[in-house]
Amino acid sequence: MQPPRARPALSPLPLWRLKLATAYIEANLGGPVRLEDVARAAGLTRMHFAAQFRAATGVRPHDYLLHRRVERAKLLLMRVEATVVDIALEVGFQSQAHFSTVFKRLVGDSPSNWRHHALDRLHGA
């Protein structure tokens, strides 16, 4: 019986391709972002892109996208005139419920509570 073959080490996504992919994600945060489209922007197939992106960043492309959407939402939450539902839609979530679930999982608080505490810190309360 032969020992199992080790998989060859996966090379991470080259920096220039990573920049193309992240630029595409940033430009399209407010709309649907499909793995195929990000991979195409980086000039790779979907499967090669996903594996190399993870090797380069340590996260899956979808997780990166969610983090970027939440970070953008945090900036928008500082605008008191914007509703949470409007912000959720503006950063590409299909519903406030999904946005709130992802936000709480990544940030540890609901968008409304986070906004309240962030504005208090901003105004020295």
Mean pLDDT: 93
**What kind of oligomer do you see?**
single chain
How much strand?
under 5%
Fraction of residues in H or I helices: 55-70%
Biggest sheet statistics: none
- Structural classification: mainly alpha
- Note the total helix count: 7
Dominant shape: elongated
CATH class of the largest domain: Mainly Alpha
CATH superfamily of the largest domain: Homeodomain-like
Reported CATH architecture of the largest domain? Orthogonal Bundle
Radius of gyration: 18 Å
Tally of distinct domains = 2
Number of strands: 0
In whole angstroms, the N-to-C terminal distance is: 70 Å
Unreliable spans: none
Q: What do we call the CATH topology of the largest domain?
A: Arc Repressor Mutant, subunit A
Q: Spell out the helices and strands N to C.
A: HHHHHHH
Q: How would you describe this structure to a colleague?
A:
This protein has 125 residues and is mainly α. It folds into two domains: 15-58; 65-122, Orthogonal Bundle (Arc Repressor Mutant, subunit A), CATH 1.10.10.60. It is built from seven helices and no strands. The protein has helices at 15-27, 35-42, 46-57, 61-77, 84-90, 96-107, 111-122. Helix 1 crosses helix 2 and helix 2 packs across helix 3. The longest helix is centred in the middle third of the chain and has 17 residues, at 61-77. The radius of gyration is 18 Å and the shape is elongated. The mean pLDDT is 93.
Could you give a quick summary of the protein structure above?
The chain has helices at residues 15-27, 35-42, 46-57, 61-77, 84-90, 96-107, 111-122. The protein is an all-alpha fold.
